[in-house]
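Re: magnesium ion structure - here you go.
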Amino acid sequence: MADKEVQNLWNKTLSYIRSKIEDTAFQTWFDGIKINTVDEESITLIVPNRFHYEWLESKYRNLINDAIKVSFGKSLIVNYSVILTEKTADNIPKFKESVQKAIPPGYHRPSNLNDRYTFENFIEGKGNQFARAAGISVTDKPGQTFFNPLLIYSSPGLGKTHLIQAAGNRMIRKNRSVKVLYITGEKFMLDFISSIQNNKSSDFTKFYRNIDMLLLDDVQFFVGKEQTQEQFFHLFNDLYQKEKQIILTTDRHPRKLVGLQERLISRFQSGLIADIQAPDLETRIAIIMNEAKHTGLELDYSIVEFIANSISGDIRVMKSLLVRLQALSTLKNIDIDLSLCRSVIRENLGESTVQSITFLQILNYVSKKHEIKKRQLTGKGRSHNIATARQIIMFLTRKLTNLSLKHIGKELGGRDHSTVIHSCNLVESKMKEDPAFNRQVESYVVDLNKFSNLGE
Ligand code: ADP
Ligand code: MG
């Protein structure tokens, strides 16, 4: 086939995939994937690293096969080639680009912004999509949309500071003459107090009223600080009337900010309110991969998966774990493996974050239910009953524990990770087709969860 024709068919394949999955997932996993070679039977795709390949294999294998069948008119065997050198990495602009943009060139003094916070390195997921889109749109028409003020709220560590600073940085990049100011609620208050102490209240007022875009982070700090609230109330009104953009963040919905004046709460609610929810597994994996890439940290896919499964609520914690892992491995000159990872998580976050259901519990349970000896399940036997029970164990272990594919395969007769993926897929599709089987597996999950709560 001519190159051009191949490219057309591949573009078709990508459009098919794009129509079937969320934009975020598409951008993370498919944007930038190129074809290496195609022949009568197979197609070889270039991916940036092994994580990427394993993720595609475990999550999107069927979708990729379907898409190829539709666009190429026949099934092809899909192979992957991982690019190793910097030179070929040019082929994958998204990754290359994000690496460059993440290198922190510094801090922009007049605005207080740190340009390490950008939309480019803010991974989009279901939980933050809306807030992110709102943040981008206010920089397109600052002060002139209904999104004034824009208020973003979430529990800690989910990206509020990153997001409003990214909005500020984007604004400055678009138009350097726009006066952007990022400030935390606490700093605002300290500024205010010191202006009173030094008899410079009028300088304070003049300075703040001269701003075109005010990014005020962690407004919950104003709770109970009457004078600061009063001061801010007038500033808010002034900026608002001049159609200057205001972006605020808080740690909860403004309605719940007890100790804040009603008139402020009502103003906070007069524009757009966007919350950020905790990231789902796929987003967490993408964030870890992105971070590892930027810091030059080499992590096995199983480790990425383990961390993403262990830490669900706070991205800051997830990132600090990576920093700690990197420090330990550099200082002690050891590889980052699962046991190092587990001990760091345990040490920092407590036992409870590390899986509560064990492989052994699952093995015992299924062995009893199916009346098959454990030895047979962890052995090589391939009779139908044994194989089915083993597949169910793989599926349950994957669902209920943080064990990696490799580890699960090792526990069950030294099978490799692709066998585990395949088995899990088989169980999943059988659950879809066979309601009785579905009920059976679901009841196992319920039982096993009870075990873990009882601490058995
Ligand atoms: P918050 O202000 O809500 O407490 P931060 O904005 O400080 O949270 O985020 C905590 C850390 O997590 C920061 O290092 C930030 O860069 C990172 N982070 C948060 N959300 C994302 C995301 N979607 N993609 C990449 N990094 C993120
Ligand atoms: Mg913050």
